[in-house]
Structure formats: structure tokens, C-alpha cells
Amino acid sequence: MSQKITEIVLFNTLPDVDPEQFAEIVAVLERDFHMPMAGYINSELSRAENGQWLLFMHWETMAHLKKASKAMMESTKTEAFRNCLDVKSVKIQLYQYLTSWDNK
Question: Who is most buried in 5, 10, 80, 88, counting CB within 10 A?
């Protein structure tokens, strides 16, 4: 069975954060922080009509995810992202990845 992990992060930004600017901050976060990390597979960003954000990520193993999570809290590369978050709203769920379908 696969060791891959799906990480789902639901959160709100602070009220004064512009959604378009925040999406750019996340793009930089993914490109400069997550993508170079060992075990990173891919990620997606979505936003609900009520303003809640969803960051959907896949990792090769739980160990890779844990290492990335620890680094996220310590790296200066993640400060712009972290400073936009309503920290009380952050909810993280982890799932064992099973499969995916794509209709390209």
C-alpha cells in the first residue's frame, strides 16, 4: 500500500489581506519553499465564496510531511504566508493517499 500522504489545510486570512496578493504569496511559498523539499509531490490552492482557503498537498511519506511542517514554522521563506493567516482558523487533516483520476 502507498505511503503517500494527502494533507488538507483549511484556513482564513486576516481581514486586511487582499486575496489576489495572498494567492501570489502562496505561489512564491510553493515555488520557493515546498517544491524544493524532499518528498513534495504537488499542491493546489482554492478559495470558497465565504473567503475560506484550502491548500491541498501530496507528500511521498509522513516523514517528508513532518520535516516540511517543522521547517515551515522556522523558515524566513514562509514568513509572508504565516503573517497573513488567522492562526485560530487553521485546521489540518492528513489522509493516506489512495489514488486519483484525471480527465485531461
Answer: 5
